[in-house]
Amino acid sequence: MREGIAHDGHVMFPMMPYTSYANLSDEDALDIIAYVRTFKPIKNDPGPTKIDFPVSMFIRAVPKPVEKSPPPEPTEPVARGLWIMANASCAECHDTIDDKHQPIPGKHLAGGQHFTFSKGVVYAPNLTSTRRRASVPTRTKN
């Protein structure tokens, strides 16, 4: 979860934000695992993951062992909230991005990224307290 190596030893694709989770303490990581294990397992075999070359080579360089304990989490409320947002990788889904996948200035956590599933498209919502709308990409047929 924090190092980028799956339970069976293969390198995880960085879509699993393990580089952010490396900042979690052992206690926090174990608490998250305990929470996730309260859910009833879903039987689903997506099959083996296949990452094409050259990306398959690049991702092998990303995982790193957690060698030392991260610094303690902040206790001041605003700093703690920012720490949680950074370590939970909220921006990875909830930032509005342009066509080059770069965050759009002024749209931090405004939502809009879309994820296509077999039953439709899901859009990451705006997490800010403002009513601003994210720029939702239009879908075109190729």
Overall description:
The chain is mainly alpha-helical. The protein folds into 2 domains: 1-76, no CATH class; 90-142, no CATH class. The chain has 5 helices and 2 strands, in the order αααααββ. It has helices spanning 18-21, 26-36, 55-58, 77-87, 91-94; strands at 114-117, 120-123. Strands 1-2 form a two-stranded antiparallel sheet. β1 (114-117) and β2 (120-123) form a beta hairpin. The radius of gyration is 18 Å and the shape is globular. The protein starts with 17 loop residues before the first helix and ends in a 19-residue tail after the last strand. Mean pLDDT is 81; it is low at 136-142.
| Straight-line N-to-C gap | 37 Å
Main structural class: mainly alpha
Q: Can you tell me the number of structural domains?
A: 2
Query: What fraction of the residues are assigned to beta strands by DSSP?
Result: 5-15%
How many strand segments? 2
| Average of the residue pLDDT scores | 81
Low-confidence stretches: 136-142
User: How are strands sequenced across the largest beta sheet?
Assistant: 1-2
Main beta sheet: strand number and arrangement?
2 strands, antiparallel
Helix content: 10-25%
Shape: globular
Radius of gyration equals 18 Å
- Series of H and E elements: HHHHHEE
